[in-house]
Amino acid sequence: MKVKKDMCKAFKDYRKQKKRLGKEEGISIGKSQGIIKTLIRQLQLKFGNLSSNTLDTIQSYNQEQLDYLTIHTFDIQEEKDITRYLQFV
Which Pfam families does the annotation name (predicted)? Predict the structure, then answer.
């Protein structure tokens, strides 16, 4: 009986851990999506409508690239500079 209880506890602990990790991942994804949305809005205010290629590129960036681009948004002078600017990251 003890083995059965230990297995049940181990399974419950495993489920709790996976649920916590899934929640953390969901929060992280949500933050990234929020940053992307805000960044695109800022760039559209600065340059007008962005090309679909630029939008797709921004949406494919990792967190480090998004942070870098967000910090340097005011340094970018043209839409084509967006991708060029991140070659240094």
Answer: DUF4351
